[in-house]
C-alpha cells in the first residue's frame, strides 16, 4: 500500500512512509470493510464518517513537516488512524472529535495498540483546544467552509495548518503557514471530506 499508493505518487518523506508502514491500517476499519483496508479509497468507519484514502493521509501528514519535538492538533479523530500516524512523528498529539461514540472507540483502539501519548478530547474542534496551544502543526480532517479563526490563533509562530477548505461537496487541500504576523497559503488540489460541523464550520 505504502509503496504503490503513497510513495509512487510523490510522497518522499521517509519518516511519514515509515510511520504508515508501522501502523496497521486494517485495525482502524470496521470488520465488514476490512478486506478493503489497503485499497486506494476512503472507507466508512460508522456514524456516517470515513477514514481517508492512504494517499491523502500521506500527503496531509507530509505537508505538516513535523519534527519529533512538535506538538500537533488534529480536528476530527474519526477512527484514530491519522492520530496514530502523527504519534510516530511528533512529541504530543491532541485529537478533537465531536462524537462521543467515535472518540471512545478510537481511544480504546489506540490504547490496545500501545499508543498512549495521544490525547483524545470530545469537543467542537472548530474552537481548537486551548489548554495545549500553541501547536506547531494543526490538521483538520473534515471539510471546512473556511479555516476556523481559533485554529489560526492557536498556531505557533512558524506553525503549519493543513485542511480541506471549500464547499460541502468539494474542497481544496490548503496549507497555511504562520510567520510572525504573516499568514501564507498554498493550494494542493481538490479533495472530498465529510463536513466539519460546529461553531466555525458547517451548521448541522
Ligand atoms: N482523521 C480520521 C477521519 C476523520 S472523518 C481518521 O483518521 O479516521 C471526520 C471526523 O471529523 C468525523 O469523525 C467527524 O465526527 C469529525 N468532526 C466533524 N466536525 C467536527 C468538529 N467540529 N470537531 C471535531 N470533530 C469533528
Number of helices: 6
Query: Any low-confidence stretches, pLDDT <50, length ≥5?
Result: none
Specify the structural class.
Answer: alpha/beta
* Average pLDDT number: 97
Shape: globular
* Separation, N- and C-terminal Cα atoms: 35 Å
- CATH level-3 fold name: Rossmann fold
**Helix fraction bin:** 10-25%
The CATH C-level name is Alpha Beta
Small-molecule components bound: S-adenosyl-L-homocysteine
Read across the widest sheet, the strand sequence of neighbours is 5-4-3-6-7-8-9
Radius of gyration: 15 Å
The share of residues in extended strands comes to 25-35%
Task: Give the arrangement of secondary structure elements.
Elements: H1 2-7, H2 14-22, E1 43-46, E2 49-51, H3 54-63, E3 71-75, H4 81-87, E4 92-97, H5 100-112, E5 118-122, E6 135-140, H6 149-153, E7 155-166, E8 171-179, E9 182-191
Parallel strand pairs: 3-4, 3-6, 4-5, 6-7
Antiparallel strand pairs: 1-2, 7-8, 8-9
The structure holds S-adenosyl-L-homocysteine.
Describe the structure.
The protein has 204 residues and is α/β, with parallel strands linked by helices. The chain has a single domain, classed as Vaccinia Virus protein VP39 (Rossmann fold). Helices cover 25% and strands 29% of the residues. The chain is built from six helices and nine strands; from the N terminus they run ααββαβαβαββαβββ. The strands form two sheets. The chain has a seven-stranded mixed sheet. It has a two-stranded antiparallel sheet with strand order 1-2. β1 and β2 form a beta hairpin. The longest helix has 13 residues. It is globular. The mean pLDDT is 97. It binds S-adenosyl-L-homocysteine (SAH). The site of S-adenosyl-L-homocysteine (SAH) has 26 residues, from β2, α4 and β4.
Amino acid at each position: 500500500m505504502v509503496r504503490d499508493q503513497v510513495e509512487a505518487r510523490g510522497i518522499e518523506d521517509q519518516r511519514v512512509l515509515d510511520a504508515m508502514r508501522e501502523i496497521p491500517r486494517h485495525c482502524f476499519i470496521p470488520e465488514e470493510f476490512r478486506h478493503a483496508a489497503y485499497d486506494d479509497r476512503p472507507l466508512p468507519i460508522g456514524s456516517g464518517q470515513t477514514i481517508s484514502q492512504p494517499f491523502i493521509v500521506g500527503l496531509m501528514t507530509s505537508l505538516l513537516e513535523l519534527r519529533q519535538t512538535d506538538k500537533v492538533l488534529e480536528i476530527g479523530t474519526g477512527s484514530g488512524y491519522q492520530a496514530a500516524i502523527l504519534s510516530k512523528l511528533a512529541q504530543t498529539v491532541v485529537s478533537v472529535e465531536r462524537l462521543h461514540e467515535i472518540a471512545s472507540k478510537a481511544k480504546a483502539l489506540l490504547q490496545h495498540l500501545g499508543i498512549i501519548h495521544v490525547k483524545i478530547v470530545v469537543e467542537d474542534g472548530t474552537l481548537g483546544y486551548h489548554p495545549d496551544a500553541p501547536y506547531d502543526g494543526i490538521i483538520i480532517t473534515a471539510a471546512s467552509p473556511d479555516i476556523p479563526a481559533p485554529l489560526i490563533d492557536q498556531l505557533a509562530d512558524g506553525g503549519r495548518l493543513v485542511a480541506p477548505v471549500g464547499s460541502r461537496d468539494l474542497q481544496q487541500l490548503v496549507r497555511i503557514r504562520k510567520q510572525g504576523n504573516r499568514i501564507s497559503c498554498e493550494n494542493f488540489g481538490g479533495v472530498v471530506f465529510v463536513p466539519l460541523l460546529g461553531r466555525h464550520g458547517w451548521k448541522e
